[in-house]
C-alpha cells in the first residue's frame, strides 16, 4: 500500500519540513512519471529563431541521462560568419553542492563542429557565408539540409518511446507537401495526418513507413538518412501525382451557357 500525503497550510498550524519536501518533490515526481518511458532528447520546445545577428532558443524540456531538465528561460546567442560547419550544443556540467542547494549548470553555446560527447546534446548546426544572414525558416522539406546560411535541425534528437526520433517540424513539412499533391494513396494520407495531428511521431512508425514506400528492410539509420529517404519518397509522390491536382481543380469548374 502506498501512502499519499497532501499537506494542510492553515492558520495556527506548524510548518513542518516534511510539508515543504512534499511541495518540492511533487512537480518532479509528476514529470518523472509522465516521461519515464521516453528516451533522452528534447521533449518539448528549444526551437531556434533567428533575428539578424542573434539566435533565440525557446524555453524547453530536455531529458539527458534519464534526468529531466526544465529550461525555464529563452536562451539568446550571438553568431558570426564562418565558412566551416559549427554546432549549437547544450552542455551539461557536473553538479555542485553546498549547504542549501544542489546546482547543475547548463550552457548553450556555438562551437566548431565536433562529435557530440556524453555530456552534450546537439540543438543544430550551420555554415554561414560572410555577408549573409542565418535563417531558421524553411522553404520545403529539402531545405532543412541546405548547406549554407540555414540552421540544420535534422540531426537533433527528440525524445521518443525508448528511442529518439526526429523533430515534428520536419515531419509536418513532409506531410503538408505530400497532401498538396492530392495523393489518393491511403498509406500516405494516414501517415501525413498522423504527422500533422501529433507532437511526436515515433521512430518505429517513420522507419516502417519508409520501408513500405521504398520496398526495403527496416534497418537502424541516422536522422540524416531518414530525412534523405523522406525527400526521396516526397519526390516520388509528386511525380506520381503531377497531373492529379490539375485534374481535380478542373473538375470543380462550373460552366454556364
Show unreliable segments. Answer: none
The strand order across the widest sheet is: 1-4-5
Instruction: Give the overall average pLDDT.
Output: 89
Number of strands: 11
Biggest sheet: strands, sense, closure? Answer: 3 strands, antiparallel
C-alpha Rg (nearest Å) = 23 Å
Number of helices: 6
Structural class: alpha+beta
Helix content estimate: 25-40%
Q: Tell me what portion of residues adopts beta-strand conformation.
A: 15-25%
Structure description:
Helix 2 crosses helix 3, helix 2 packs parallel to helix 5 (223-240) and helix 4 (203-214) packs across helix 5 (223-240). Strand 8 and strand 9 form a beta hairpin. The protein starts with 16 loop residues before the first helix and ends in a 6-residue tail after the last helix. The strands form four sheets. It has a three-stranded antiparallel sheet with strand order 1-4-5, covered by helices on one side. Strands 2-3-6 form a three-stranded antiparallel sheet, with no helix packed on it. With 257 residues, it is α+β, with helices and mostly antiparallel strands. It is built from six helices and eleven strands. It has helices at residues 17-34, 168-180, 186-197, 203-214, 223-240, 244-251; strands at 41-45, 48-51, 54-57, 60-64, 67-71, 75-78, 82-92, 96-97, 102-103, 106-112, 120-128.
In short:
This protein is α+β, with helices and mostly antiparallel strands and 257 residues long. The chain contains 6 helices and 11 strands.
